[in-house]
Write a structure and sequence with these properties.
By secondary structure, the chain is an alpha/beta fold. 22% of the residues lie in helices and 32% in strands. The protein has 2 domains: 124 residues, Elongation Factor Tu (Ef-tu), domain 3 (Beta Barrel); 148 residues, Rossmann fold.
């Protein structure tokens, strides 16, 4: 297991906020698209990587800085002036203090969501080899995500359809959200994934909770995976398919539960999973 303390933050760069827009309506959880511009000749990144955000202190317990990782949500964009633009997809988070029982704001998410255009922040990284695109353009990508876990998949889709015309493999995305307004890149405020729906090699399946007002834990992903389990299982048996899972731990749990049923037994699914991992065709990026 990797911990935040394992990441080297000794080398940092400055980034300027160029855009900070809410991409979910006011009546659901706040998620913002935050664009940052880095003006540093040695800075570059690849799809699937993440950057560290360093929130200046002082903070509780004598900490002088607060560090969190965020997956980059766009394919690399380098300007004519050699600057690099990064998009972060950030949900404003709160937690219940275990001692006081009161709701407290998440430090990094609220810091980012409150940024104004022209503000400067400190970044480290980029980090991560968890999600990398295969070298073979014939590979199929099977992407399973929920919440802001869709960020690396959006970067993949952008890269393939806007910069990699030679790609021939299929892209299949399964994404869960509590309601249609919470599908981060397909709602009334932001629908930029729609532009890829006319691509013959792209399919997306969105699972929505049937009772979002009652069950805050249900993001609809479990049902959409079960309904398409046989097709997913068949795709995984193709040696040209690479699996990516991103989001909460329950995202992986829902996926594995659906695959175990489709495979016919837990033993057969374990064998399939181990083969995927052994062949380097399984990648996951999960958070608690």
């Amino acid at each position: 297991m990797t911990y935040l303390s394992d990441f080297d933050t000794s080398q940092t760069i400055q980034a300027e906020v160029t855009l900070n827009n809410r991409i979910t309506p006011d009546f659901v959880a706040e998620v913002r698209s935050i664009w940052l511009r880095v003006n540093h000749p040695e800075f570059s990144y690849r799809e699937g990587q993440h950057v560290g955000v360093i929130v200046p202190g002082p903070h509780a317990f004598g900490h002088d800085k607060h560090f969190r990782l965020y997956t980059i949500a766009n394919s690399p964009i380098r300007g004519d002036d050699n600057t690099v633009d990064i998009e972060l997809c950030v949900r404003r988070c709160f937690y219940i203090d275990e001692f006081s029982g009161e709701e407290e704001p998440g430090i990094a998410s609220n810091y980012l969501c409150d940024l104004k255009v022209g503000d400067h922040i400190t970044l480290s990284g980029p980090y991560g080899e968890a999600f990398t695109l295969p070298q073979d353009p014939e590979m199929n990508l099977l992407m399973i995500g929920s919440g802001t876990g869709i960020a690396p998949f959006r970067a993949f889709i952008q890269h393939i359809y806007e910069q990699h015309s030679a790609w021939k493999g299929k892209l299949m995305l399964f994404y869960g959200a509590r309601s249609g307004t919470e599908t981060l890149y397909r709602n009334e405020l932001n629908n930029d994934l729609d532009k890829y729906y006319d691509q013959k090699t792209f399919q997306a399946f969105e699972g929505l909770s049937e009772r979002p007002w009652m069950d805050k834990e249900d993001d609809g992903l479990s049902d959409v995976l079960k309904n398409n389990a046989d097709e997913i299982c068949e795709m995984l048996q193709d040696t040209k398919t690479h699996l990516y899972i991103a989001g909460l731990e329950k995202t992986k749990h829902n996926f594995e539960q659906a695959m175990q049923e489709a495979a016919g037994s837990s033993a057969r699914w374990r064998w399939m999973k181990e083969e995927l991992k052994e062949k380097g065709r399984w990648s996951e990026l999960l958070y608690g």
